[in-house]
Amino acid sequence: MATDTTTAPAPARSPRPVRWWRRPWIAPLAIITAIFLATALPRYVGLDPAQSLVPTDRGPAFYPALVTHIFTGSIMLSAAVLQLWPWLRAHHPRVHRWSGRVYVASAIPTAVAALVVAQFPSSGVAQQVANTLMGTLLLTFTLLGYRAVRQRRFADHREWMVRSTALAFSIVTNRFWSTFLIAVYVPGALTDPNIGFDSPEIEGAAIASAWMSFIVNLLFAEWWLHRKPKNRPGAQRAR
């Protein structure tokens, strides 16, 4: 009787789980997002233009677009945090997929409303161009990411959605850049009530912040996507 000496193929190794300490930024990101939403959103819940952080006397379309941008943007940011959480993606893929759908459904009106708001800048054409470009890129990257996943091009989907998420969080980083740049452009402006926020120096800081808040995020996203993994087993899978 012949003996079968064919070696059975080794079972496929399951992907190494991504431990939480390999992504230590997810908790701080969630906390920063929660603080941002808790401080910004309440001013608009009552739909009172007098409570707005920015002047609303910029035409009848401005305040409705601003409120839409803030409400849908809040949903977008919350869904984005879930999308960026590797543990949730690995252990609850169904929740990951649904949070992705929520992200896309909220990012599209957020970007469209941003395009409307951008046409009423407080600091001139340079700020208008920056905000219009940001809104256009957010809408474009989100739609490209959605199309890629529908076509089951998952690697392309991941890249476009990372870029989209980087732009989504530009509203959060704008708070940092605006504060930092005002302190650089006009030292003492944040504590001196006699310095008006319509001064040329403050407007210059607002323009610079509008550009840096999304360009720096995009540069970081591109670095993240194209960085070389460390030479260790499973490093490629952990990306």
Kindly describe this structure:
The chain is mainly alpha-helical. The chain has one domain (23-226). The protein is 66% helix and 0% strand. It contains nine helices and no strands. It has helices at residues 26-40, 42-45, 62-83, 86-91, 93-118, 125-150, 154-168, 170-185, 200-226. Helix 8 (170-185) packs across helix 9 (200-226). The longest helix has 27 residues, at 200-226. The model is unreliable at 1-15 and 232-239 (pLDDT under 50).
Strand-residue proportion: under 5%
What share of residues is helical?
55-70%
Separate helix tally:
9
Order of helices and strands: HHHHHHHHH
Q: How many domain units?
A: 1
Largest sheet: none
**Rg estimate, integer Å:** 22 Å
Structural class, by secondary structure, is mainly alpha
Mean pLDDT: 83
How many strands in all?
Answer: 0
Low-confidence stretches: 1-15, 232-239
Could you tell me how far the N terminus lies from the C terminus, measured between alpha carbons in angstroms? 50 Å
What is the molecular shape?
globular
